Amino acid sequence: MAIGDYLSGAAATGSGMDPMCGGFEMSKKTRLYGFGICFVLGFAISLISTLLLTVGSVAGFAVFYTVGNVVSLCSSGFLISFKSQFKKMMDASRLTASLIFITAMVVTLVVAFTLKNVLLTLICCLIQFLALFWYSLSYIPFARDLFKSACGGFFK
């Protein structure tokens, strides 16, 4: 299936209609705008989180960092549909990374609000980042294998 089919929504329903958007059709241009806006907005929100950390707001940092990651992740839903995105997250090749990512988001917020421990919160955010990175690599053919081989010497 061509990328144009994904962008037009034909992959989701065969008709260009996106069932996860209330049946509204999204043009290629709209999907690309949605992707770009969500991706940039997610990155900006994550950047703002670092400012909150510098002023000592661990909970604010955790919330903004986690929300930034979720918004960035949602950006790909505009390209392939949100329903398809959710299904792909549950594929066997992505399930572990997806579950670690979701768990790390929850644990990050719990640690930040209950323990208020900066170091543990940063570790949870690092786990979020690594899980999202590993999940994202699964969409690029052979990227995980290439990454493993590139880091192979580092871990030996």
TrEMBL record:
This is Protein transport protein SFT2. The chain crosses the membrane at residues 32-53, 59-80, 92-113, 119-140. InterPro entries: Vesicle_transpt_Got1/SFT2 (IPR007305), Vesicle_transpt_SFT2 (IPR011691). Belongs to the SFT2 family. It is a multi-pass membrane protein. Nonessential protein required for the fusion of transport vesicles derived from the endocytic pathway with the Golgi complex. It is found in: Golgi apparatus membrane; Membrane. GO terms for cellular component: Golgi membrane. Keywords: Golgi apparatus, Membrane, Protein transport, Transmembrane, Transmembrane helix, Transport. Its main location: Golgi. GO terms for biological process: protein transport; vesicle-mediated transport. It comes from the Eukaryota. Pfam families: Got1. PANTHER family: VESICLE TRANSPORT PROTEIN, VESICLE TRANSPORT PROTEIN-RELATED.
